[in-house]
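Appendix C: a fully annotated inverse folding record. The material below is reproduced so that readers can follow the format used throughout the book. The structure is listed first as tokens, followed by the designed sequence.
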């Protein structure tokens, strides 16, 4: 499959049996569909109506002579031909982004957007509070924080940088760096006794180590409050609702929390991920260094 910066770039691959003219605008629609998994979601990403997205998809499938997406339980999933087209489109997207960054740079200052994926607890209590100082140094950067319990797919371009608790699975074109260990301990409200009720995670997060620790320490079935987010648990502890596990580098700095007696609950590895194709871009290098330094400072001080 080949893309050229011409009026009529050509696609040609074994599972796309014809060569057809397409341009970046066509690819942009395919990428939006692949990332959103619905026509409506792609329309919101692109700022157009759903009918336009459907029409552009139909046009692309006609040009390429292959069905690119199939609908399963309301979501659109790429066919083998669609995955081949998306893989190429992502490569083109990266090249265009690099070209724009180079063309728009009037000095050596890094510029552009960086999308950072992490669970809400890390975004809200580690990354976002420290971001203003970074942006004072690099005012042409823009940081897009994606606070989500779901792991963003770097291969699909859902994020540029990801901060993850737990060792990532091997495979994929990822640059991975282990930043350290996040220790957890039991915390309760500063003004309440140590036997306050346990706040636990709901069944959707039962696979997580800290959820399993709580399941072993508490009668989860009898817990009156369960959550699907660690930051919500933190807020509930501060409101006096009960006790739970909290990362020590966060809990020890919260005046309305008190670490309960006993050893740390557990420790989880913290990893920094970037798609390998972005590793040399100036803004990505700066963000990786900033996150690594920030994490070391916070964890060593916990």
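Designed amino acids, in order:
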């Amino acid at each position: 499959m080949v893309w050229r910066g011409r009026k009529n770039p050509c696609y040609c691959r074994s599972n796309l049996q014809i060569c057809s003219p397409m341009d970046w605008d066509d690819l942009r629609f395919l990428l939006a569909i692949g990332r959103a998994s619905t026509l409506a979601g792609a329309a919101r990403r692109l700022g157009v109506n759903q009918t336009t997205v459907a029409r552009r998809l139909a046009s692309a499938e006609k040009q390429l002579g292959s069905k690119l997406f199939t609908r399963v339980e309301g979501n659109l999933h790429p066919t083998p031909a669609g995955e081949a087209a998306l893989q190429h489109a992502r490569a083109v997207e990266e090249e265009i982004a690099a070209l724009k960054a180079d063309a728009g740079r009037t000095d050596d200052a890094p510029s552009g957007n960086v999308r950072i994926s992490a669970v809400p607890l890390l975004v809200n209590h580690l990354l976002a509070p420290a971001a203003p100082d970074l942006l004072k140094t690099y005012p042409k950067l823009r940081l897009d924080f994606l606070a989500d319990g779901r792991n963003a797919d770097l291969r699909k371009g859902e994020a540029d940088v990801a901060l993850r608790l737990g060792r990532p699975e091997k495979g994929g074109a990822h640059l991975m760096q282990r930043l350290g260990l996040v220790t957890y301990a039991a915390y309760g409200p500063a003004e309440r006794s140590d036997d306050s009720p346990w706040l636990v995670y709901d069944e959707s997060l039962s696979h997580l180590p800290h959820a399993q620790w709580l399941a072993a320490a508490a009668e989860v079935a009898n817990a009156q409050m369960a959550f699907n987010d660690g930051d919500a648990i933190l807020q509930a502890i501060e409101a006096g609702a009960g006790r739970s596990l909290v990362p020590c580098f966060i809990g020890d700095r919260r005046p309305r929390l008190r670490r309960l007696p006993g050893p740390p609950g557990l420790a989880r590895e913290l990893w920094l991920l970037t798609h390998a194709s972005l590793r040399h871009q100036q803004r990505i290098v700066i963000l990786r260094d900033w996150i690594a330094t920030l994490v070391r400072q916070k964890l060593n001080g916990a």
